[in-house]
């Protein structure tokens, strides 16, 4: 476990990274839920989702599951792509 002292506080890099991953995963989940609830995905929705995922530098299993929800709905016709 990597850690250091910054401004008198011990910082654990692993827990900090995990917190950032959780925030990114929650943001992806919120975007996906909004897209699914609307039944439509625009080019702007795609850009927002892509930038949120890539902002973290990598995607974890939870993020993959969220994106697969979008793909599944597109493939089954339950989600329309609009303004492309």
Description of the molecule:
With 84 residues, this protein is an alpha+beta fold. Helix content is 64%, strand content 17%. The protein contains 3 helices and 4 strands. It has helices at 13-38, 43-55, 61-75, and strands at residues 3-6, 9-12, 40-42, 80-82. The strands form 2 sheets. It has a two-stranded antiparallel ribbon with strand order 1-2. Strands 3-4 form a two-stranded parallel sheet. Helix 1 (13-38) runs antiparallel to helix 2 and helix 1 (13-38) runs parallel beside helix 3 (61-75). It is globular and about 30 Å long. The model is unreliable at 11-20 (pLDDT under 50).
Task: Write a short abstract of this structure.
The chain has helices at 13-38, 43-55, 61-75, and strands spanning 3-6, 9-12, 40-42, 80-82. By secondary structure, it is an alpha+beta fold.
Name the descriptors:
single chain, 84 residues, alpha+beta, two-stranded antiparallel ribbon, two-stranded parallel sheet, 3 helices, 64% helix, 17% strand, globular
The total strand number stands at 4
Distance between the termini: 46 Å
| Average pLDDT score | 78
Helix count, DSSP H or I runs of 4 or more residues: 3
Radius of gyration: 16 Å
Strand content: 15-25%
Unreliable segments of 5+ consecutive residues: 11-20
Shape: globular
